[in-house]
Amino acid sequence: MIIDGKALASDIEAEVRERVERLGFNPGLATILVGENPASQMYIRIKHAACERVGIRSENIVLPGDTDESTLIKTIQGLNKRGDVHAILLQLPLPGHLDPRKAMMAISPEKDADGFHPENMGALLLGAERLVPCTPRGIVYALEHLGVDIEGSEAVIVGHSNVVGKPLAAMLLNRNATVQVCHVYTRNLKEHTKDAEILVVAAGVPRLIKADMVRDGAYVFDVGINKVDGKTVGDVDFDAVKEKAAGITPVPGGVGPLTVAMLLSQTVTAAEMSLERQRS
């Protein structure tokens, strides 16, 4: 089975529209783009188009590529103070002279659309999932939507980034999966992946995972986006692995749409949290 990320994202967007209607106002998302990275510009356009579809008011703040740290932090602090901005997203990567960790820590935890703030990451590790990284949240949503029994399952994640691998491991542990986290430095990677019932690959290595590394009937989520001979491919040898997997996400059209849809959901969550604070 091909796991259609676009179809799942459409379901999420329908849920988000209903939540926006119940709120009675349009939540606000502010994105910050530093520089003119073409890929980042494309991702920003995709996110703002998605906001428009579900009734989220969005604005994009573009800063020059030579923006200094002080200016970026002040821009974020200004958005923190605005009542009409419920969620803030800092588009990564930043230019090399800027420290993404300092910038992320400047975002108010209550407005942290990406779930990268240490306070939100800490809550996740303690089992309190408030605002969490969007890609892991999308993967967990897909597993639950497909009726996969996460509890007790053998889950292997290839990739230990702060964006995908680490937070996804915490989310799966919170649901009582048995989790292994591997990476490109793992010795004998096949020995780990071949028994996985849930396999998530986010290593940034084109077609790293071959068919003989995958268990029959596994659910495989390919987070990789790589360019090979002008084509976009993932970290999984899709054509070979799809014959063995119970479900597999394509690249493109798999995890990417889920990530964007979860950004919308988290923006509404941030607005709902803001409303609760006002009422209490």
The major beta sheet can be summarized as:
5 strands, parallel
Q: Report the uncertain regions.
A: none
CATH architecture of the largest domain: 3-Layer(aba) Sandwich
Q: What is the CATH class designation of the largest domain?
A: Alpha Beta
Strand content: 15-25%
**H/E topology pattern:** HEHEHEHHHEHEHEEEEHEH
Distance between the termini: 46 Å
Q: For this structure, what is the CATH homologous superfamily of the largest domain?
A: NAD(P)-binding Rossmann-like Domain
Which whole number gives the mean pLDDT?
97
CATH topology of the largest domain: Rossmann fold
Counting DSSP H or I runs of 4 or more residues, the number of helices is: 10
Lateral strand order in the biggest sheet: 5-4-6-7-10
Count the E strands: 10
**What is the helical fraction, as a range of percent?**
40-55%
Shape verdict:
globular
Structural class determined from secondary elements? alpha/beta
Overall tally of structural domains: 2
Pfam families: THF_DHG_CYH, THF_DHG_CYH_C
GO molecular function, one term: methylenetetrahydrofolate dehydrogenase (NADP+) activity
Subunit structure: Homodimer.
EC number: 1.5.1.5, 3.5.4.9
Structure, explained:
The chain is of the alpha/beta class and 280 residues long. It has 2 domains: 23-109, 3-Layer(aba) Sandwich (Rossmann fold); 134-256, NAD(P)-binding Rossmann-like Domain (Rossmann fold). The protein has 10 helices and 10 strands. It has helices at 5-23, 38-54, 69-81, 100-106, 118-125, 134-145, 165-174, 189-193, 238-241, 255-279, and strands at 28-34, 57-63, 87-90, 154-158, 178-182, 198-201, 219-222, 226-228, 231-233, 247-248. The strands form 3 sheets. It has a 5-stranded parallel β-sheet. The chain has a 3-stranded parallel β-sheet with strand order 2-1-3, with helices on both faces. Strand 4 (154-158), helix 7 (165-174) and strand 5 (178-182) form a beta-alpha-beta unit. Helix 1 packs parallel to helix 10 (255-279), helix 2 packs across helix 10 and helix 6 crosses helix 10. The protein is globular, with a radius of gyration of 19 Å. The mean pLDDT is 97. It catalyses: (6R)-5,10-methylene-5,6,7,8-tetrahydrofolate + NADP(+) = (6R)-5,10-methenyltetrahydrofolate + NADPH; (6R)-5,10-methenyltetrahydrofolate + H2O = (6R)-10-formyltetrahydrofolate + H(+). Pfam families: THF_DHG_CYH (PF00763), THF_DHG_CYH_C (PF02882). Catalyzes the oxidation of 5,10-methylenetetrahydrofolate to 5,10-methenyltetrahydrofolate and then the hydrolysis of 5,10-methenyltetrahydrofolate to 10-formyltetrahydrofolate. Pathway: One-carbon metabolism; tetrahydrofolate interconversion. Its EC number is 1.5.1.5, 3.5.4.9.
